[in-house]
Amino acid sequence: MAEPWQPLLDWWFGSADTPDEIAADKGKLWFGKGHDRQAQERFGDQVEQALAGGLVDWAQRPEGWLALVLLLDQLPRMIYRDTPKSFSGDLRAQALVAQGLAAGFDRQLKSIQRVFIYLVLEHCENLAVQNEAVSRFIDLVREQPEAQRAVFEDNLDYAERHQRIIARFGRFPHRNGVLGRESTAEEVAFLKEPGSKF
Fold first, then answer.
1. Within 13 A of 159's CA, how many CA atoms are on the CB side?
2. How confident is the model at residue 197 (pLDDT cuts 50, 70, 90)?
3. Domains along the chain with CATH numbers
4. pLDDT tens profile 32-71
5. Is-above-0.85 flag for pTM?
6. Residue 148: CA atoms inside 13 Å, Cβ hemisphere, count?
7. Which Pfam families does the record cross-reference, listed alphabetically (predicted)?
8. Is there a contact between 70 and 12 (Cβ–Cβ < 8 Å)?
9. 19 and 2 in contact (C-beta within 8 Å)?
10. Within 10 A of 165 (CB to CB), how many other CB atoms are there?
11. Which three-class secondary structure state does DSSP give residue 2?
């Protein structure tokens, strides 16, 4: 009998073998905007359960922990895109990630799966957490065979860009509108620059 989190992991990572193939197959799902409705229809109920503090037992095993983190961090950004609720799972996701990292759960996952654990750190508006995200991605790149590093180097590049923004502003200016925060003049100018929004 399949674990309750397996359909989500199958949908998110697919059945390709190498990190390059998985990223090529699933990149539009991960970072595009065309699958929001599908995310809602297939996993909306589980997202709501996770946001309400449920599915705690999933976090007892690395794969379930990963799936619960996805329900709190990635899927709300799809289902509730451009609303404050898209960030509503972040604090619980960050706490779960900290617990799982302390237990070494990330080391029991595939390399491409670990990306979505470290992305939770990258989403945090705290410089110390951003520094940890960059450090984790550096280690992830170093652990890969030379021929498979490109996907992970790309993720490291994004982590470093997020880190620089938090170091400069202490927050992500591109979230200000959605969260009802007033932007400073410097942030307004920054948001006009290419690559300022994620």
1. 28
2. confident
3. 6-191 (1.25.40.10)
4. 999 999 999 999 999 999 999 999 999 999 999 999 999 9
5. yes
6. 14
7. DUF924
8. yes
9. no
10. 19
11. coil
